[in-house]
């Protein structure tokens, strides 16, 4: 029995909650996964997993063994990277997840540069506006906009995304273009809501140094960034969104920025990864490249 491979299989079963999901994730036959776990339990002399028809969960011994496995596997990867050519030319699969707009408009267009620098890294990219469970879904690194709420993950700030307030020309022709916050009376907004937390987001402005919500009537609420902008373009009201997300529409005249003299909060963008991945060479070089990318002027994160 290859004990390190058995440990790797065991950790994915715990994280994914099932033998079949772990086998699919690791591209292994389901029978091989079952045999490895039986051999591992026989070798250790303890039951590691509770098996039911609905789910698989670790026993008390299994939970303790899982924590040791995660640390050992991370240490093994780092040791191999430190004493091999992969230290300078890392290889292997890197699973990353990021918001749709960030990926489509900023990261993926620049990604050939990263691939040229690290040609042996294979990228698997998930584009989601929902937060993913990095451990359960086997994601090495995720980009998240907004406050970091998960203390179990390592957080590395990347950039403060400048936001703008805008509306469609048709809406402004009908409702008038506001010149001050007082002019917002009688206007509408498009509301954004999180399908995970249920939290709802309206408009916010800094007034005398204090961040103040500005609640306006709404006809439409959406739970995706693309839908949020589509509702704005359709004339349903004002929105606030990162500049990169509307730069093309502003240049084309599909949307117009309003209330430019009234500051709105920036949106922090953070790279998140599980603690056991902090030594991964693949994760480290990717996050370092992201820091380079977002530090460059003209990358779309703020007005030119």
From TrEMBL:
- Where in the numbering of this chain does the HTH lysR-type domain appear? 1-59
Keywords assigned by UniProt, alphabetized: DNA-binding, Transcription, Transcription regulation
Entry GO MF terms: DNA-binding transcription factor activity; sequence-specific DNA binding
Q: Which CDD domains match?
A: PBP2_CrgA_like_3 (cd08472)
* Example GO biological process: DNA-templated transcription
Q: Which SUPFAM superfamilies match?
A: Periplasmic binding protein-like II, Winged helix' DNA-binding domain
Protein name per Swiss-Prot or TrEMBL: LysR family transcriptional regulator
């Amino acid at each position: 029995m290859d004990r390190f491979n058995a440990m790797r299989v065991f950790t994915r079963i715990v994280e994914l909650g099932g033998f079949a999901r772990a086998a699919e994730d690791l591209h292994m036959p389901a029978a091989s996964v079952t045999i490895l776990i039986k051999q591992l339990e026989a070798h250790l002399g303890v039951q590691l997993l509770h098996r039911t028809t609905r789910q698989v969960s670790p026993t008390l011994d299994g939970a303790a063994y899982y924590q040791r496995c995660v640390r050992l596997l991370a240490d093994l990867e780092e040791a191999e990277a430190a004493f091999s050519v992969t230290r300078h030319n890392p290889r292997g699969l890197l699973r990353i997840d990021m918001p749709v707009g960030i990926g489509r408009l900023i990261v993926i267009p620049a990604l050939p540069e990263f691939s040229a620098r690290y040609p042996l890294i294979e990228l698997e990219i998930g584009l989601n506006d929902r937060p993913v469970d990095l451990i359960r879904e086997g994601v090495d690194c995720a980009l998240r906009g907004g406050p970091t709420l998960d203390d179990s993950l390592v957080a590395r700030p990347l950039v403060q995304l400048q936001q703008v307030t805008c509306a469609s020309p048709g809406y402004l022709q009908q409702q008038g273009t506001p010149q001050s916050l007082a002019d917002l009376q009688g206007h509408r907004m498009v509301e954004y809501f999180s399908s995970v937390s249920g939290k709802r987001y309206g408009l916010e402005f800094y007034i005398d140094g204090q961040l103040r919500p500005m609640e306006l009537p709404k006809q439409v609420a959406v739970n995706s960034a693309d839908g949020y902008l589509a509702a704005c373009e359709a004339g349903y009201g004002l929105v606030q969104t990162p500049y990169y997300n509307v730069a093309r529409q502003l240049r084309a005249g599909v949307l117009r920025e309003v209330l430019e003299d009234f500051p709105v909060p920036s949106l922090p963008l953070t790279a998140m990864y599980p603690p056991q991945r902090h030594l991964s060479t693949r994760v480290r070089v990717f996050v370092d490249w992201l820091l380079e990318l977002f530090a460059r002027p003209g990358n779309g994160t703020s007005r030119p």
